[in-house]
Amino acid sequence: MKDSSIFRRFPQVFAGLSVLSIALVLSSWIAARSLLAVKQASDVFVVTGSAKRAITSDYILWRLSVFSQQPTAREAYRDLIRQTERIRAYLKEKQVPDDAITTNAIETMAIPEVTANGQETGQILAYRLTQRFEIRAGDVARYTELSRQVTELIEEGINLVSEPPQYLYTQLDKLRVEMVAAATKDARARAEAIASSTGSRVGRVRDAKTGVFQITSRNSTDVSDSGIYDTSSIDKDITAVVSVTFGIE
Question: For residues 128 and 106, is the Cβ–Cβ distance under 8 A?
Fold first, then answer.
């Protein structure tokens, strides 16, 4: 009777205790769910997978140039045209199609007179004019051989500069997709090997991050954090790396 009278006299006390009880039950449920979520989130492990494939360049980029240096710009230009025409004739003899050849604008540089202490006198000693050529083609073997032969023009008095060809692979976009798939498959195989040794099972993929691609000369061990794209070799290796987060069951 006494307790009942207290609740009748102070109903707000009863209401407060009821709210407090409900809050304690609710908070306990939330805490239990949070612990479960943390446990589920922590039941993962990260495995790195990789894939490597040999490729052969199917495109060549070859740059060469010719220059003339004469006392006057006019003389330099006339001599440059003579050399340029000889190079064009040579490329035609070698059956290089016109649409494979790109020429840039002629570069002109005045060469100043300089004293022994490095000061310019204001006088021009000569003019140096340069014509650059760029050849792009898919016949890698033929143009590689031509890049070696072209230096014979030097014996004719042609001021030729032939740069080492650059070798490219034009199917990289398609190959990257295939390589990522292969690297992910490798990661799962490694994950299953690790899980089986601990009596666990590999679950679904929680996250995957693709690393940079390394395109190196054949059998090279070079690696770079920013990726490598070797253009000096015809035969290359491409390596893909994927970091995959798996759930554990």
Answer: no
